[in-house]
Amino acid sequence: MQVIETIETFRTARSRYPRLGLVPTMGFLHEGHLSLVRRAKEECGAVAVSIFVNPTQFAANEDFSTYPRDMERDLSLLREIQADLVFTPTPATVYPPGHDTGVEVGTVTNVLEGVVRPGHFRGVATVVCKLFNIVQPTKAYFGQKDAQQCVVIAKMARDLDMPLEVVVCPTVREADGLAMSSRNSYLKPDERRAATVLRRALAAAEARFSVGERSGETLRQAMLETLATEPMGSVEYVSIADRRSLTELGQVPADGALASLAVRIGKTRLIDNVILGS
Ligand code: PAF
After folding, report:
1. For the chain, N or C: smaller number of CB within 10 Å?
2. Which of 169, 117, 171, 161 is nearest to 140 (CA)?
């Protein structure tokens, strides 16, 4: 496994691989990330992982400075599962002085996370576009846990004719259903217990959907009722939306819907989702 900091060295190393999967990450790796790396390696024969905590996707009031980091542990996990290339650029490499260009993806960035985190998806799309240009992957792998991010990146790749396939992989969960996330490390023990309410709220929507409920309002209400049972939770949004446009639905159509939510447990902001009717 080769660990590379600069774009020039990365490009030279990359040229050895006819097919290469890319797993972009912000590090502090967990089983969710590792499942993407394994799948990329399996499908492409070789895999590059980027580790870069991207400052431009964090607002001033967010957790950029405290975002968990452990490069040594990340590299040892990646060595174990035989990643081929690891790209670990510095902020000055990604954003050299004078960098002044960004990628704006359209209306899918103006809802859900985009409302609560203005500018977030411009930061994500810009860094992912740069990573695609540097790495030139055959396929790039993202977790369904960040459902809106997947929609935004797939749209960017399609709209800008990027020559790669965006692959969305299933959310990996802890035994009690909590979606794996680097931010789970912020949770104190009582908050960690409370955080299971996100999965339970999604399960409530799934249960209603499975017995024929198709009203978006009723499904959103089912999630809110479950979330209300957890006093440590503060709801930011619940959503039943079209899977591609992410617009809120009055009625769920035959091809299903994305049920998603964002909840604060103490100071930690958690998101999760399921696809209804998949
Ligand atoms: O999902 C993440 O970890 C980040 O948003 C990504 C895709 C690596 C871009 O910084």
Report:
1. C
2. 169
Q: Could you tell me if the CB of 26 is within 6 A of ligand 1?
A: yes
The alpha carbon of 146 and the centre of ligand 1 are apart by a number of angstroms equal to 9
User: Whole-model pTM?
Assistant: 0.98
Q: How far is CA 233 from CA 112, 115, 267, in A?
A: 18, 19, 10
Quick one: tokens of 56?
A: 């431009």
Beta bridge partners, 49, equal 23, 86
**What one-letter code names the amino acid at 112?**
L
pLDDT in tens, 240-273: 999 999 999 999 999 999 999 999 999 999 999 9
Q: Is the CB of 128 under 6 A from ligand 1?
A: yes
CATH 3.30.1300.10 boundaries in the chain: 182-271
Tell me where in the chain the CATH 3.40.50.620 domain(s) lie.
Answer: 2-169
Distances (CA, A) of 186 to 49, 106, 204, 260, 269: 24, 32, 26, 21, 10
CATH match of 2-169 with 3.30.70.20: no
The CATH number of the structural domain formed by 182-271 is 3.30.1300.10
